[in-house]
Here is the input.
Amino acid sequence: MNTRSLSNSTPLFCGAIFLLAAVTSVMLSGCGAVYTAVKKRNLDVETEMSDSVYLDPVSRSKRSIYVYIHNTSDKDIEIKSRILSALQENGYKVVLDPQKAHYMLQANILRCSKSDRRTANLALEAGFGGGVTAAALAYAAGGGPRSAAGFGVLGATLATVGDAMVEDTVYSMITDLQIRERPLKGEVITQTQHADIKQGTSTSVRQDIRGAQAGWKTYRTRIVSTAEKVNLDFATAQPSLEQGLVRSISGVFVE
Here is the structure.
């Protein structure tokens, strides 16, 4: 065997293997991108509530409600007018004085941003007032595990470019909902409350309220709405997210 000839052919052989790996990577990336583009071509919107809320049925004369909708997300979202319209269509009278209301509806839109299904599910499972772990947020931001081992630098780069052109995008909207209801005749509601309040990084205050008679029965839940589509932008997702939230909140008051 000619050792010199074999030595000269080694770079060509390695180059061919490298090129084959790069082409294979691009082909796999292309197949994945096409699969995503086809499967996620239609807008998929879901709205889920962490806990069910059951209100006592009352006569029409008591169907008065005070509504307070707050938005602490970084998106311009306005749903109050549609919620008021939905409640009025269901026979409720919207009042401006909470003392004259039989029901009080309070909602806060906490966050509305790009996410993934895993993070949205974690937020739903956390329930009213619950947070989302830093690890989950990092995962949603693109910190999930990636590996290009065995494909070469060129193949991994081309695969990344191909994947970037077709993105399975999920937007989630997280809303905490509190509903208060006047007790029925003969009902006495007592309240026990514990609160740990932080002041700065080194001071905390603990409050205990025991045995106080409450004027309301209180229900709390969390609503998570998601919109998913390939290369989805927020302007496209927003109307469906808002519609799902309005339907979920007003649905609590439908008998």
Q: What stands out?
A: The first helix runs from residue 3 to 39.
